[in-house]
Amino acid sequence: MRSFFRTLVGQGVLAGHGVKTWFMAWFMALTKTMTRTWTLALSMALTMALTMALSTTQSLAQDWPNKAVKLVVPYPAGGGVDLLARALAYRLQDKWQQSVTIDNRLGANTLIGTEAVAHANDPYTLLFTTDATFTINPHLYAKLPYDLERDFTAITQLVSFSQLLVVGQRTGINSMAELMDLAKAKPEALSYSSYGPGSQPQLATELFKQKSGLSILHVPYKGIPQAIAAVVADEVSMSWSGVVSAKPFIANKRIKPVAFGGKTRSSFFPEVPTMTELGYPEVDANVWVGLFAPKVLSSAVVQRINKDVLAVLNDATFKANEIDAKGYDYSGLGPDEFNKHIKAELVSRKTAVKLSGVSL
Known about the structure:
Layout: H1 2-10, H2 18-63, E1 69-73, H3 80-96, E2 100-104, H4 111-120, E3 125-130, H5 132-140, H6 148-151, E4 152-162, E5 164-168, H7 176-185, E6 191-194, H8 200-212, E7 217-220, H9 224-232, E8 238-241, H10 243-251, E9 255-260, E10 286-294, H11 299-313, H12 316-323, E11 329-333, H13 335-356
Parallel strand pairs: 1-2, 1-3, 6-7, 6-8
Antiparallel strand pairs: 3-10, 4-10, 4-11, 5-8, 5-9
Helix pairs in contact: 2-11, 3-11, 5-13, 8-13
């Protein structure tokens, strides 16, 4: 306090300026000192709070999950997407020491399952779906019961794959040229199956029809297994299918591949030309599979899940048996990169959907 008064005297504050002036100077000096003290105290308190919050978030991420986890798959059991989800769930059970179950909520071109996860907003219910959910459906429907930005957080894109255009054995078709000749000679004689209105097979086929001028009847089914079974049973003439679903039927000569939807030929069927080679580069028959979390999940837990999923995908045995052997291409995108990819594809798919003429 003495040093404080000496400072005032040294600055001439107490020299002939009266009590009022002295009091104002004293009050301002005291306020300045208190302000510095409170600022320092507040800064220390905020630092401690942030440190505790970070520690708590990291702790929660390490503790998650502390109960069973559910993966909602908006496709029927037995298809390629479902089988991949089950293989992943089996591995994650060991890693998380919790039960990881599959809930097949099929219907309405993935809308039913996706809406269920969005409305549940449960940190232990995740969505395992394809690109159709977030890059195609927004262009097919005037209004969706879910929104990517509002309801979900992208965790990782696991794999991608291109589809084969396959025809039934009884059609007698052995190539795309023969398919087109038959369609031109007998309009409405050919039909194709899909796993629902607005699904990838319908978009690809309708776009092909637009470009080729062919007339091929659309017959929708509930899922990929049913759509392929329809070709095998000669209920329809053709369909698009992933390698994992079509491979056993091709091996048994029940169906025959005539075109491939990728930019380069399939390593499993190198003799099959791509749609680009056949003169239809616009026909997009490519699919990716991704994992999504409801917004309620913290970023720390999302990063934890991403890390654990990528660890499974990069396991040598899992990669050989569940990715390479089934014709998938490993993606392994993280949350930020995956989100950017979705937004870019949302724009590019708008043109494809418009050209196909499909709307729901």
